[in-house]
Design a protein that fits this description.
Layout (H helix, E strand, L loop, with lengths): L4 H7 L5 H16 L5 E3 L2 E4 L4 H15 L7 E4 L16 H17 L21 E3 L2 H11 L8 H10 L1 E3 L13 E5 L6 H15 L4 E4 L5 H14 L6 E2 L15 E5 L1 H10 L7 E9 L1 H7 L6 E5 L11 E5 L13 E3 L2 H7 L3 E3 L2 H6 L4
Parallel strand pairs: 2-3, 2-4, 6-7, 6-9, 7-8, 10-11, 10-13, 11-12, 13-14
Antiparallel strand pairs: 1-5
Helix pairs in contact: 2-6, 3-4, 5-8, 7-8, 7-9
This protein binds FE3-S4 cluster.
Length: about 375
């Protein structure tokens, strides 16, 4: 692999032992993926920061490397608790102490503790910007909807990129890998943001890690966010196009692409998979809600938790309780059955989930 002088120096230890090791990880990874060089990035986004998911080993690892500094803007995914109301939500003090130690390490290294999986609701990346992001739904969103460029990084590779400021030049950083390879005809009306997520999930299961090109749908930021989260959950999709909607969709000739069709039966099957009645708690916001979605949620007839970035949170009204910094997947909540409006949340919660359209939830229907 070709390395610049700066990259060689980091590899020789000029920026300390941790940066040297991180550079080694990235070079190895890049070589395995066929990259010929490393690209500078402008923004890293870290996942795997909940004590529930990384445990003692993850905490020890971060405490070992906490003297290193992040060299680029670095934001963070949700952690295992709402930092202000963890006690009232039944989180154990021993968990909270460990979680705070993890966050202290990241803050010491220079991270901005955004604690959200939708950092783009706080600040949009720019078209063409190279990033190293590790939240799969956010990866799909920024590649597709913004035209920024990031592969689906793992927790470790995103951390290594945050420290060194580089990422391997491969995958969707390269123009040739952003082209669509399967055309998706949508033969069903999508009436809910939840339907968009389910559509993504269905298509993701079929296309794996291909780049789908959707025709026949319209949607704004929140619908596109839901499709991306579904695609990254059902499959390992890192980018998609929607004809006449997403910024790079016009570039490509779609004649001759392999075609698939999705109809209402495909969508219905997913709702049936996570069907059921009852539920001990209702959560909206996987991925975290936008400001507009949060406002709409205030019309709920039932008590709901609305997950959102703390920087977007506002005063609670009606039966909506705002939950920041976390989500039901990465927090150690003890609810047996959870009603959700997102197929990603349902897939991660498994048998504990009941999937409902957001509108039905807000109307208080069916549970
Ligand atoms: Fe975000 Fe948690 Fe869903 S991190 S994408 S709300 S599983």
């Amino acid at each position: 692999m070709y390395l610049t002088r700066e990259q060689e120096e980091i590899l020789q230890g000029a920026k300390g032992e941790v940066a040297e090791k991180c550079m080694r990880v990235l070079v190895r990874l890049g070589e395995a993926l066929g990259a010929e060089r490393l690209l500078p990035i402008e923004w890293a986004h870290l996942s795997g920061i909940s004590y529930k998911t990384i445990g003692e080993a993850g905490l020890e690892f971060l405490e070992d490397i906490k003297e290193a500094d992040f060299s680029v803007k670095t934001t963070t995914n949700p952690c295992g608790m709402d930092l202000l109301r963890w006690k009232e939500l039944g989180i154990d003090e021993s968990f909270a102490i460990k979680q705070l130690r993890i966050l202290n390490c990241l803050e010491r290294m220079g991270a901005s503790l955004t604690l959200t999986c939708t950092p783009y609701h706080l600040e949009m990346p720019k078209f063409g910007q190279h990033l190293a992001w590790a939240e799969s739904s956010a990866v799909c969103f920024v590649n597709s909807v913004i035209g920024a460029r990031t592969n689906r990084e793992g927790a470790l590779s995103a951390l290594a990129s945050a420290i060194t400021g580089f990422t391997p030049d491969c995958g969707v950083h390269r123009e040739e890998n952003r082209a669509p390879d399967v055309l998706v005809k949508v033969g069903v009306e999508l009436n809910s943001v939840t339907d968009f997520g389910v559509l993504g999930y269905v298509v993701g299961e079929i296309v794996g890690d291909s780049v789908p090109y959707f025709v026949g749908i319209r949607g704004g930021i929140d619908q596109l966010k839901a499709i991306g989260a579904g695609l990254a959950t059902g499959g390992a999709v890192v980018m998609f196009h929607v004809q006449d909607v997403t910024p790079e969709s016009k570039k490509y000739d779609i004649r001759g692409l392999e075609k698939i069709e999705v109809d209402h039966r495909d969508i219905q099957k997913v709702y049936e998979k996570w069907g059921g009645e009852g539920g001990d708690a209702i959560f909206l916001g996987c991925p975290h809600l936008s400001k507009e979605e949060l406002q709409r949620s205030f019309k709920s007839k039932k008590p709901v938790f609305a997950c959102v970035a703390r920087l977007l949170a506002c005063r609670e009204r009606g039966s909506v309780r705002i939950l920041c910094d976390t989500c039901p997947v990465v927090a150690p909540f003890r609810f047996d059955k959870i009603v959700v409006d997102s197929v990603k949340a349902a897939a991660y919660l498994g048998e504990r989930a009941i999937l409902r359209r957001r509108e039905e939830i807000l109307e208080g229907k069916g549970y």
